[in-house]
Design goal:
- The chain is of the alpha/beta class.
- 31% of the residues lie in helices and 29% in strands.
- It contains 6 helices and 8 strands, in the order ββαβαβαβαββααβ.
- The strands form 2 sheets. The protein has a 5-stranded mixed sheet with strand order 4-3-5-2-6, with helices on both faces. The chain has a 3-stranded antiparallel sheet with strand order 7-1-8, with helices on one face.
- Helix 2 links the parallel strand 3 and strand 4.
């Protein structure tokens, strides 16, 4: 059976380290590895990205706490239990912590796949959010242009 799908793939801004409010510094993965970290559980998208970034930098880090929501991750960092590494757009919305500059962290790749027969209203809303959060994302009429059969 063959189904037609549409795909979009964009480079999103890199992640941003978050620290308790008032603590500032520019950091690299090597510097972050010296700190206890707070991250999402293994298998989550951001955890896979973070693990790959540290592997690429050839450094080992200590994840002291795992949070199952970004709100919990923010609270753990705000209580100075570790440093988090979250999408830059997410860091900008976290009032309880401060984002600090980073170098040496690769950009994230954001992908969306949907059936070419038509995206549901929820899928269209998600794609609109994807376009807003990734300014270089394709325009709406470009989103259906990348089709493949599986």
């Amino acid at each position: 059976m063959s189904t037609s799908t549409a795909k979009a793939s964009r480079q999103a801004p890199a992640t941003a380290p978050i620290v308790p409010t008032g603590r500032t510094a520019q950091v690299t993965p090597g510097r972050l590895a010296e700190e206890d970290m707070v991250d999402m559980p293994p298998g989550s998208g951001i955890r896979r990205h973070n693990d790959a970034a540290f592997t690429a930098a050839a450094v080992t880090r200590t994840v002291a706490f795992e949070a199952d929501t970004m709100a919990l991750l923010e609270q753990l960092v705000a209580r100075d239990l570790g440093i988090g590494l979250v999408p830059a757009a997410t860091a900008a919305t976290m009032p309880g912590v401060s984002a600090v500059a980073t170098t040496g962290v690769p950009p994230r790749t954001v992908r969306a796949v949907w059936t070419a027969s038509g995206a549901s209203p929820a899928a269209r809303a998600f794609l609109q959010l994807l376009r807003e959060r990734t300014p270089k994302a394709p325009a709406e009429d470009d989103l259906g242009a990348q089709r493949s059969s599986s």
